[in-house]
Amino acid sequence: MSLAPKLVFAERRVVTVRYVADVHGVWRPERPRRCSLFSEASPCKISFHRWRVRKCGPPHPLAGFYCATHECYFTGYPPSWLPFGRRPMVHVTPDDLEVFDVGEPPEAWVETAFGAAVDAAARRPWPKSAGGFIAWRKRFGREPHGVFRTQLRHMDGALVLFALVDSIAADQPAVAAALGIDLSDVVMAARRIRDGPAWRAKGETGTDLLGAVGRPRRSLLSGFIRLGRDRRYWGPPSTVSAG
Ligand SMILES: [Zn+2]
Q1: How far is the CA of 23 from the centre of ligand 1 (A)?
Q2: Which of 104, 119, 210, 220 is 20 to 30 A removed from 65 (C-alpha atoms)?
Q3: How far is the CA of 77 from the centre of ligand 1 (A)?
């Protein structure tokens, strides 16, 4: 998950579309009604452009679209996925339904965008380099989401997203409201960051907050998206589908 401000993308709408399985079990996108450059004054004319297959990310190809009005190509992201994301924010089905069998926090979050913190808190540093992936896979029975440097970057991004760093502590009430938790949970989680050593303390800070949030569930998405928008990690959502 690229939890980092990307100014180029901060003003572009993230186009989310549902993918619905056809009779062969292939996930087909619904056609969006708005492109990433949508404005009320000029309605979009959108057609399917091509399939995008990615090395990491959603387990099915993503649909690329073209808007003739705004002369732009854009990707239709499935619910819970954002540009540059390697994992979803929470687990939902491609057709935007709740996934119930996700386990209990914090491990339930390990295959989400916040997996870096869960792994750090459980003393699972990601490999120093790509050469360490095989050993890591053997030891932990699954894929790391990147190298250790990426793990640190993901955690730093999440700490800012949830206002768990001192410089934006004033945003903690907004975080509590967006996630539906008590302000004291955010404040307490933020304190953990001083408990060093740094990488594990960051992980524990993150998992404290995720523990307060509870299971990764669909109802959290709008709050996450709002917080990311506030941090300029991504643009406003555009979720209207033509069906
Ligand atoms: Zn358009």
Answers
A1: 30
A2: 220
A3: 16
| Average confidence (pLDDT) over 61-83 | 92
Q: How far is the CA of 237 from the centre of ligand 1 (A)?
A: 14
Q: pLDDT band for position 203 (50/70/90)?
A: very high
| Helix 172-179, helix 183-192: angle, nearest 10 | 120
- Summarised one tens digit per residue, pLDDT across range 151-165 is 999 999 999 999 999
Residue 236 belongs to a domain:
no
Query: Count of domains in the chain?
Result: 2
Q: State in Å: Cα 61 to ligand 1 middle.
A: 22
Q: pLDDT, tens digit, for every residue of 81-119?
A: 987 778 999 999 999 999 999 899 999 999 999 999 999
Query: Structure tokens of 83?
Result: 């540009």
In a shared domain, residues 170 and 127: yes
- Supply the DSSP string of 81-110, one letter for each residue: --TT-SS-SS-B-TTS-B-----STTGGGT
Domain that holds residue 183: 107-216
What is the Å distance from ligand 1's center to 26 Cα? 26
CA–centroid distance, 240 to ligand 1, in Å, is 12
Is the same domain home to 65 and 123?
Answer: no
